[in-house]
Amino acid sequence: MKRMLIGLAAILLLAPVFATAGAPKPNVIIENPGQCIAPTAEMRVNHMKMLNHSRDRTLRQGIRGEKASLNGCIECHASKTTGSVLGKDGFCESCHTYAAVKVDCWQCHQPKAGYKHAEAAGVKP
Amino acid sequence: MKKPQDLLDNKPRRNFVGAAAIAGAGLGTLALAPGLHLIQVSEANTPSQGASGKVRWGMLIDSTKCASGCDVCVKACNTENGINETLKDARQGSQWIRKIDLKNPKTGQEHSLPMLCQHCAHPPCVDVCPTGASMKRADGIVLVDRHTCIGCRYCMLACPYKARSLVHLPLTNQNPEVPRGQGCVESCTFCVQRVDKGLKPACVEACPDGAMLFGDLNDPASEIAQRIAKEKTTQVRGDLKLNLGVRYQGI
Q1: What is the arithmetic mean of pLDDT over A10-30?
Q2: Which residue of A55, A87, B55, B121 sits 20 to 30 Å from the alpha carbon of B246, by its own alpha carbon?
Q3: Residue B51 lies in a domain
């Protein structure tokens, strides 16, 4: 019990320190600046809305080649060192970790750019 | 501590909207930001029309040409759709297309055929899906919307053709055009990512015996429609009256 109280007191004392320090800002690396489909402010606020709408049109109505596409994001924003939008300094993960917003995209979608489809396809025997 | 809006190190959006409106009114090139021109975006991406209700994609499989023991179509499917995971229990593996060998015990006649999602016009999987994830496109292709699939597997029970599988393990190395992952049900998509580009499904293209034919059942000029009009074809479990997109010959 005593230990718990000490722990609680420590947390209460340290709380203002954490609050003022704040989490370190993400190191967002933009590989191809100025090439985005919309201005940064617009993209920051609305990228998921754009993606959600276009994904439904693509999957359910078969409309391909929309302005906003996850593969389009990845091809442009994947890190030139790791080839991925994930990882500590990855374009998606760095910011989403900072904002504590979980993204489930990568359970199904490929986070790496430059997938060699011709190699993998191999449809001809 | 910095306020959240300080992190958006740019002007308020109102300024941006005003600037964009001025740019749009004054300039033909629509410069939205330094280095960004709407004209580039619009030229680069012209969305396609999407699936048409006038088309009904279908497949005709000639079982008399299909060689027993050949699984080129299965391999092509797995490669195209990135089905390469190995599971402890092989029965849990995803199976979009499988080869079946049949034998008539009375006559001894044997034949082989690939079995895949039959892309029903009245799909039971769509009927039973509690979330609306199981769906049929306007052009007759039956798909699973993984964004809404909860992995309940009602559709797997409802399907008379055992065409669907559940992904049991976390996946990596997906084909970017074929996203697939743990906890979702999946099945043959007629290689929708290829069909939308005007290509044939991977299995049809790979078949070395020419036993598989893909085309538009609604177009009287298409080879598949002409053959179905002239030759005898069978729908598997035709008694269910599901109006299948996949037809067989020689069974």
Answers
A1: 69
A2: A55
A3: no
Cα–Cα dist B116/B145, whole Å: 18
- Residue A74 distance to chain B (closest CA, Å): 10
Q: Please report the pLDDT score of residue B7 as a whole number.
A: 45
Cβ–Cβ below 8 Å for B175 and A66: no
Report the Cα B227 to chain-centroid distance in Å: 24
Predicted complex ipTM exceeds 0.90: no
Structural domain including B28 reads 4-44
CA atoms within 13 A on the CB side of B169: 15
pTM of the model: 0.78
Number of domains in chain B: 2
Between A65 and B34, the higher pLDDT residue: A65
What is the total residue count of chain A? 125
Q: Which of A22, A34, A45 is the closest to B35 by Cβ?
A: A34
All residues at 6 or more sequence positions from B182 whose CB lies less than 8 Å from its CB, including other chains:
A107, B167, B168, B169, B170, B171
pLDDT tops 70 at residue B110:
yes
Cβ-defined contact of B50 to A117 (cutoff 8 Å): no
B241 plus B123 within the same structural domain: yes
Question: Residue B135 forms beta bridges with which residues?
Answer: B143
In a domain, B21, yes or no: yes
Residue type, A8: L
Question: Do B34 and B73 belong together in one domain?
Answer: no
Termini Cα distance of chain B: 74
Q: Is A48 on the interface with B (CB under 8 A)?
A: no
Residue type, B87: L
Identify the band that residue B18 occupies on the pLDDT scale cut at 50, 70 and 90: very low
**What is the C-alpha to C-alpha distance for residues B157 and B165, in angstroms, rounded to an integer?**
10
Residue-wise pLDDT for B168-221, tens only, equals 999 988 999 999 999 999 999 999 999 999 999 999 999 999 999 999 999 999
